[in-house]
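To: structure desk
From: M.T.
Subject: fold request, one chain
Message: Could you run this one when you get a chance? Sequence is below, nothing fancy, just the single chain.
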Amino acid sequence: MNTVKIKAIVRKEFYHLIRDFRSLYLAFVIPLLLILLFGYALSLDVDNIKTVVVDHDKTYLSRDFIRKLDASSYFNIANQLTDTKAVTEYLDNGWTTMAVIIPPGWTADINADRETPIQVLLDGSDPNFAGISRGYIMAFVEEYNSQLLLDFLNRKGMEKIKPPIEGRIRVWFNEDLESRNFIVPGIIAIIIMIVGAMLTSLVIAREYENGTMETIRSLPLRGAEFLTGKAIPYFFIGLIDVLVAVLMGQMLFGVVMKSSFWLMVLASSVYLFVALSLGLLISVVTKSQLVANQLALLITYLPSLLLSDFVFPIVNMPKILQIITYIVPARYFIDILNGLYLRNLGLDHLWPSYMVLAVMFVILTGMNLLVLKKEGM
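Reply: Done. Structure tokens follow.
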């Protein structure tokens, strides 16, 4: 390839980029907004569950149960109601997500060694939140039961009973179970796809709409030189955005990479090549900026967000969607980022994902050259 010709294309694309306010906005402002919005607003952690309590028992034990429930970091007792009917109003209006109703005679039943149910109502409009809340309240009740049993044995002077099975749980890779630790790396995949595919989806289509493609065809320029010159400015913009995202993730959210920084740069570069090739292919096929932009949004940004194991687990998807995820590049890039950020893995474990991205780049580049050859380049 002739580097002089490539430099000329790069210079032309760079001048157009700095004159186009919309492209600069999409290249720099949108990624920054995404980092801040995803980092601060998107959280899958469940804590401070807004709870209301109805205590029909009004004994020392029911008050102790409510006090310990409120002291837990997972629950926040917003109000103590006197009427059970008011619970329905609170749930219907979204003023609470959980209600705990302690029946009359609760303490007397406990002291008489009878079954002592309490009623827990959950807002199931968000199934994920409701499922996690149910797990929390069941664990709390189980722990409270154990404490009551131990207190009873102590009062009777009996030896403590050890449960036959004791689970000793240790969380690896993300010890605090903070969702930010995998949300922030996932943002990098979204940013690269926006800068790489959505911006480059416009560059060749713009040449067709402006009528300059005929002039480019008449130049002694090969398809590979044309594609390389068009892609280089966006490659460096994408890398700058990645470095800014890594820096902001560490400074604002305390998300620190455990493995090699240079492996992350290598993975970002390969993934960026895939995104650029995909955007250029969309551009050269559609030949219309409007259609290219909408198509890029449909087949790059949305699958990267929804089908990449970033927000929604792939294992929970229907089988047909699980098969489709194999052709989504973000799936492999997020797997690499999770390995580098959370699991401290190296290239010996992550090379399959690197290879898949490299193969995707080769295939997309071949398709680009084939289409340009048919266009006379």
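Reply (cont.): The beta strands are 49-55, 75-81, 98-102, 119-122. Let me know if you need anything else for the meeting.
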